[in-house]
Write a sequence for this structure.
């Protein structure tokens, strides 16, 4: 008798912004020591995995042309890693639908890797624990573990050691997307250059954690901060204009997301966010804008009977 072919599994996974990103010294392995607060927002990629003669990958959606389709694609790397871990052949076809801007500092590639891990462990019925998945995620990249959890969480080490942070209140954001991307290693390199010779004081994380717990967006606006922002702005000076325009349009605060060039603007509520987005879109200071909210859950299998 022939075994039934399992149905494809689709996973929805969110983008992240960093509410706080403190960059410490360079470690012996070449990575910087980080203390960050990740926040998952409602821009999503969808990753489908199916049995196939693989591994193979197709990419659709925004920025698809800039996404590699060889084994440097993080979703494919996740497939290969999990196949090795489970001692199976990686005969899998992957389809990515990109809604997260590519090379935008929103960890889209990492999100796809997390989604591929979740999707494939469901397709193969591996029943991995969250800790096992997190360990595999950390091997793939610093931001992959967070994409498994979603929500709001503190990341330490390279960002891969995750502790969830309780955030009872939804926050409303305008996300301003730019043409082109910034390379994360180059932005860290620029930060090292800007800092050379000076001992930067680490940015304390406590104020942002208190503001998240309190839930008042005005308080949160005062404590947002990203050590990579000066480096991203130095490499893409037009971001200064975008950041100013968002605040002039009524956002409570704006910051570069991760290594940029995407900018995130915190707004008092959803209506305000829609107003800020409309105004920013008309000013020509970015390629396009999105309204989003957070925190949202991490990589989750989409129930075919109940699509999002
Ligand atoms: P990082 O996670 O390094 O901060 P980022 O969030 O700025 O990066 P990503 O969208 O993850 O941006 O893409 C960074 C680069 O990774 C892209 O330029 C692309 O070449 C490569 N890449 C590999 N896999 C993927 C993927 N599945 N989706 C998007 N980009 C990918």
């Amino acid at each position: 008798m022939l075994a039934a072919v399992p149905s494809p599994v689709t996973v929805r996974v969110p983008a992240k912004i960093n509410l706080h990103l403190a960059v410490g010294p360079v470690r012996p392995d070449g990575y910087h020591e980080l203390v960050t607060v990740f926040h998952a927002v409602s821009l999503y990629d969808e990753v489908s995995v199916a049995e196939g003669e693989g591994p193979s990958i197709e990419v659709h959606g925004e920025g698809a042309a800039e996404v590699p389709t060889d084994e440097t694609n993080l979703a494919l790397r996740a497939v290969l890693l999990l196949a090795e871990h489970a001692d199976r052949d990686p005969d899998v076809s992957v389809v990515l639908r990109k809604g997260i801007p590519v090379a935008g500092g929103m960890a889209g590639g990492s999100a796809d890797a997390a989604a591929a891990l979740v999707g494939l462990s469901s397709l193969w019925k591996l029943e991995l624990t969250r800790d096992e998945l997190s360990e595999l995620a950390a091997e793939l990249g610093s931001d992959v573990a967070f994409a498994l959890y979603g929500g709001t969480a503190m990341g330490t080490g390279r960002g891969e050691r995750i502790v969830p942070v309780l955030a009872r209140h939804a926050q409303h954001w305008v996300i301003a997307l730019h043409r082109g991307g910034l390379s994360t290693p180059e932005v860290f390199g620029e930060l090292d250059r800007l800092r050379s010779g000076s001992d930067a004081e680490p940015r304390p994380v406590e104020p942002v954690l208190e503001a998240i717990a309190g839930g008042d967006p005005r308080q949160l606006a005062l404590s947002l901060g990203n050590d990579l922002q000066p480096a991203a702005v130095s490499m893409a000076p037009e971001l200064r204009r975008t950041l100013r325009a968002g605040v002039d349009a009524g956002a409570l605060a704006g910051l570069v997301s991760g290594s940029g060039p995407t900018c995130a603007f915190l707004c008092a509520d959803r209506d305000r966010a829609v107003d800020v987005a409309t105004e920013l879109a008309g000013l020509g200071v970015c390629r396009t804008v999105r309204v989003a909210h957070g925190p949202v859950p991490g990589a989750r299998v989409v129930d075919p009977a109940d699509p999002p």
Summary: Residues 66-68, 72-75, 96, 102-110, 112, 143, 181, 184, 258-259 surround adenosine-5'-triphosphate (CB under 6 Å). The radius of gyration is 19 Å.
